[in-house]
Amino acid sequence: MKRTNKKLSLTPEQEVNKENPISWVKYTKNSCATCAATCCTMPIEVRWEDLVELNLVSDDDLSLPLKSIINRLKKEKVISTYRSETSLFALKMTADGKCRYLKNNKCSVYKNRPLVCREFPLRMGWRHGYCPKTPIK
User: Which one, of 78, 90, 81, lies nearest residue 45 by Cα?
Assistant: First the structure.
């Protein structure tokens, strides 16, 4: 099979699909201003430090068994899962599939937002430098 260096691009009738990174568009510093916050409808996996920063747990909680903390956070509908392989907690999304902190298309915890949100899409995400930008309707 012959290899080509063709650039992948969308035709005008194709849409960005958040679950298909090939369809994502090149990120620019102005991308967020005209986007419907599509990244806030994707799974958000956070670290322990992020939970502390969001005041969902305290450093004192570290003295408790991890399983009890996970169960409490699930019961409070703060997280949906915990992955021991990565030590990441998946934030529970709202009923309409958005981040719990997205209010009027803006992040209500912007100053304290998790690392994944700070680094997306430049250093974190499925396709670095690209985002699933969906125009505001």
Answer: 90
Convert the pLDDT of each residue in 87-113 to its tens digit. 999 999 999 999 999 999 899 999 999
Yes or no: say if 23 and 17 are a contact pair by the CB < 8 Å rule. yes
First to last CA, the chain: 42
How far apart, in Å, are the Cα atoms of 91 and each of 4, 14, 17, 77?
A: 40, 30, 21, 9
Task: Record the pTM.
Answer: 0.80
Instruction: Report domain extents, the chain.
Output: 16-42+96-131, 45-92
Phi then psi for 24, rounded to 5 degrees? -70, 160
Exposed/middle/buried for residue 24 (C-beta within 10 Å: 0-12, 13-18, 19+) = buried
Residue type at 96 in one-letter notation: D
φ, ψ for residue 116, nearest 5 deg: -60, -35
